[in-house]
């Protein structure tokens, strides 16, 4: 079989990723992603969106032995992938990667968890397939650049199926030819546009991407074929999505270099769109250092890049999902309450007249990176410059190139555990958070993945 096509070269790269070849640093980062994703999925399972999807999934898929996070029932491999993918993204609290600006773990983990449990795979096999899925997804994302995101495609959906399929292929032990066909079947279907933001459709398409990758892998296992020239065809993905822009060099280093380390994974500190995090950190820094409260604030100016403005489009949110994409709401909450956690997404806060008044003090200014920060080595695409002007004429300023939790400023282990524990508490889950945290931290020691949540 020719290895010239992009699809075939992805499959070749996946062969290089094995349980013995993955560096310890990559495994450790992947474990943090798994812990974080399980926590936010359990918390997300309590949302009306996730419960609705879970109800429909139970009607659509027969029972099986696959865990549904946050629920006591189990489902078959397809149903569990949809339900867990939706829950993992329901609170927009899941991790992010700037290779394509994707939510990688929320798609790939539900896929590999379900397949691993269905096949009684070991925890180490689950872990390595999770890494493989992320790397395939991130490599294609880098090859396409962030151009497709800028064009309005929701990359988590479009590219997530690649990661889902790649991870499933590793667990099902597909050969290179079958893996190539699975990847082709998965990606040819496309996905959602960024218009899903602020609606339940966003969570659903995250879960759907997880399920579609599994379906593609199983179809290929049974001999199904896909368009192996899907990247090169005149009507293929590269042409349709990105105007023929594609850098193959990123495909050829799959299994040699790891995107999970560079550009790395951003694990969220706040349960809102990551585009707002640098601004939140900046405002928090200024109000804490200068003892500023809402009563002596005249104006808050948040200067941000265009990508932030394109995501945070709800200046006056009416519900939780809109509040997650509102810079004004996030800033008002951090000023008024000194924190921003899952409880602040409840209706009593979103509809608070007090928070609405404070949010009216927030102004978003879209601009290029300030000249004085050009040489700053700690810059993410969603930086923020903050100015707080008080009623007595004082002006307090700060610049945040990358928020806490970003790949440049990783979330400390104690904060990762705190977030995980708070997610389980929020969900009123009776699982001991410390015990589950330790089990997930040592997932590579688990002999049978179907016992992981027992």
Commentary on this structure:
This protein is an alpha+beta fold and 454 residues long. Helices cover 51% and strands 7% of the residues. It folds into two domains: 297 residues, 2-methylcitrate dehydratase PrpD (Orthogonal Bundle), CATH 1.10.4100; 127 residues, 2-methylcitrate dehydratase PrpD (60s Ribosomal Protein L30, Chain: A, 2-Layer Sandwich), CATH 3.30.1330.120. It has a four-stranded mixed sheet with strand order 4-3-5-6. The chain has a two-stranded antiparallel ribbon with strand order 1-2. A hairpin with a 6-residue loop joins strand 1 and strand 2. The radius of gyration is 21 Å and the shape is globular. The model has no long low-confidence stretch (mean pLDDT 94).
Give a quick rundown of the structure.
The protein has 454 residues and is an alpha+beta fold. It has helices spanning 6-16, 24-44, 48-60, 77-90, 105-118, 123-144, 147-150, 155-171, 176-187, 200-221, 237-242, 260-264, 277-290, 306-311, 320-323, 327-337, 347-350, 353-359, 413-426, 433-441; strands at 66-67, 74-75, 297-304, 362-366, 384-390, 395-400. The chain has 2 domains: 6-269 and 419-451, 2-methylcitrate dehydratase PrpD, CATH 1.10.4100; 274-400, 2-Layer Sandwich (60s Ribosomal Protein L30, Chain: A), CATH 3.30.1330.120.
């Amino acid at each position: 079989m020719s290895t010239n096509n992009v699809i075939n070269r992805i499959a070749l790269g996946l062969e290089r990723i094995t349980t013995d070849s993955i560096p310890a640093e990559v495994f450790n980062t992947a474990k943090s992603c798994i812990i974080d994703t399980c926590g936010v999925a359990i918390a997300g399972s309590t949302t009306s969106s996730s419960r609705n999807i879970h109800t429909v999934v139970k009607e659509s898929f027969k029972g099986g032995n696959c865990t549904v996070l946050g629920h006591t029932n189990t489902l078959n491999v397809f149903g569990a992938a949809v339900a867990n993918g939706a829950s993992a993204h329901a609170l927009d609290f899941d991790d992010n990667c700037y290779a394509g600006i994707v939510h990688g773990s929320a798609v790939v983990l539900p896929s590999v968890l379900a397949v691993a449990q269905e096949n009684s795979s070991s925890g180490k096999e689950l872990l390595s397939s999770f890494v493989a899925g992320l790397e395939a997804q991130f490599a294609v994302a880098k090859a396409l650049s962030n151009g497709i995101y800028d064009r309005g495609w929701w990359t988590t959906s479009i590219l997530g199926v690649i990661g889902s399929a790649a991870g499933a292929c590793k667990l099902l032990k597909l050969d290179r030819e079958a893996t190539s066909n699975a990847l082709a079947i998965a990606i040819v279907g496309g996905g959602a546009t960024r218009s899903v933001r602020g609606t339940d459709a966003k969570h659903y398409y995250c879960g759907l991407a997880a399920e579609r990758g599994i379906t593609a892998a199983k179809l290929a296992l049974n001999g199904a074929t896909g368009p192996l020239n899907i990247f090169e065809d005149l009507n293929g993905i590269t042409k349709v999505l990105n105007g023929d822009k594609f850098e193959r060099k990123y495909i050829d280093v799959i299994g040699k270099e790891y995107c999970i380390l560079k550009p790395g994974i951003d694990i969220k500190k706040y349960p809102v769109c990551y585009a707002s995090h640098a601004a939140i950190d900046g405002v928090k820094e200024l109000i804490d250092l200068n003892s500023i409260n809402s009563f002596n604030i005249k104006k808050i100016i948040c200067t941000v890049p265009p990508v932030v403005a394109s995501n945070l489009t709800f200046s006056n949110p009416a519900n939780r999902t809109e509040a997650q994409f509102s810079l004004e709401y996030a800033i008002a909450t951090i000023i008024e309450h000194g924190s921003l956690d899952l409880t602040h997404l409840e209706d009593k806060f979103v509809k608070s007249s007090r928070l609405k008044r404070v949010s009216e003090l927030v102004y978003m200014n879209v601009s290029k990176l300030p000249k004085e920060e050009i040489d700053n080595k700690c810059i993410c695409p969603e930086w923020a410059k903050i100015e707080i002007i008080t009623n007595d004429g004082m002006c307090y300023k700060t610049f945040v190139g990358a928020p806490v939790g970003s790949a440049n400023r990783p979330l400390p282990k104690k904060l990762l555990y705190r977030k995980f524990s708070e997610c389980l508490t929020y969900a009123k889950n009776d699982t001991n958070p410390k015990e589950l945290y330790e089990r997930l931290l040592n997932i590579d020691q688990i002999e049978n993945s179907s016992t992981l949540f027992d």
